[in-house]
Amino acid sequence: MEVCLTTLLTIQCVLGIFLSLSGCGFVNSLGINYGQVGNNLPPPDKVLVLLESLRVTKTRIYDTNPDILTAFANSGVELIVTVENDMLGTLMDQQQALQWVNSRIKPYIPATKITGIAVGNEVFTGDDMTLVNNLVPAMVSIQRALTQLGLQQYIQVSTPSSLAVLANSYPPSEGSFKPEITTIMTQLLQFLSATRSPFWINAYPYFAYKDGPDKISLDYALFNPNSGMDDPHTNLHYDNMLYAQVDAVIFAMARLGYGGIEVRVSETGWPSKGDSNEVGATPQNAAIYNRNLLKRQLSGEGTPLRPKMRLEIYLFALFNEDMKPGPTSERNYGLYQPDGSMAYNVGLSTLSTSTTPSTSKTPSTSASTSASTSTSSSSPFISITSTATKIERLGHHQRLVCWMFVFLLAMTM
């Protein structure tokens, strides 16, 4: 009886391993930005259904919309909420911050899984030094309010910055912050280090490619096969621009004495449409960028500087938002149209029909202005993992479990 019990417990463990190998899990480090600057977007409950169908368990919103916080209750989807930039001056005051957390956050916890508060968005990008000076005091006040209410262990406080905070990003080991923000950036990093919160960066290889298509390889920007670049100071090899940008931020923090802070990508994406001067903004390139990024996320990899630390990334964005100002590209970063149809198939849904993608035979190392669409990857209408590949992997795992099952039974005879 003892042998049989031991065998059954062992078989149960093996079956658990099988289930984990069969690809039933979520991509734990992937999130999607859920913007709402549109007059034709679906209601939050429909958005939740969409996210669940995509098996996405993390999202970020740009306010504290009570309809969203209510709709997402008991869903298990992790939410990062945002303090709007124009609120920072008010929330510097401790009592105002406490009232804000009491009214905007506490009523929805724990049913709604709020895991982060983004204090402002790209505060350092503009020329408003009053806003910049208000940032860290507002973060401190919100953190104290969370602590006072016993919520600090569940919610991280940070602020997303654009790559405009860097004075230099190439090569990554030369990454440094702009001198004029060094004092406030040091205060921010002190706060993040003390609270063990991540540094959030909005990083878009698209912008770099658009501004210099004759200097930057499109394949390097899109995660396609390419020769990449070697950092001359570290000898680290980079085969894509996003990871180089992230590592440049890490080196910049290290220069200020804070090299141990985690960096997470709060926004990245590629537009599917743009104005005539927005080179590379096509549905093909958008699909390739996001699909290749998802492949990296599925592998759980980190950057060359931190290869063992899974890089957390939030795609931008879930929907095309028709009321966003600026160039055409600003309204065309979405994976979906407001009516729920795909802007292009990036392969997020495991339910979609798919075929095995082809790979490039000759990686490109440069791109010209006319090469606005990558040709070294397959059609954009292909999911991450083909059905055939999934069946093949599942069959292999089943054979492995059957062999182990027979072996374990033999042990009891």
UniProtKB/TrEMBL annotation:
Catalytic activity: Hydrolysis of (1->3)-beta-D-glucosidic linkages in (1->3)-beta-D-glucans
Recorded coiled-coil stretches: none
EC number: 3.2.1.39
Signal peptide stretch: 1-16
InterPro entries (alphabetical): GH, Glyco_hydro_17, Glyco_hydro_17_plant
Gene Ontology biological process: carbohydrate metabolic process
Annotated segments matching region Disordered: 352-380
Xref: PANTHER family: GLUCAN ENDO-1,3-BETA-GLUCOSIDASE BG1-RELATED-RELATED
Similarity annotation: Belongs to the glycosyl hydrolase 17 family.
Protein name, UniProt field: glucan endo-1,3-beta-D-glucosidase
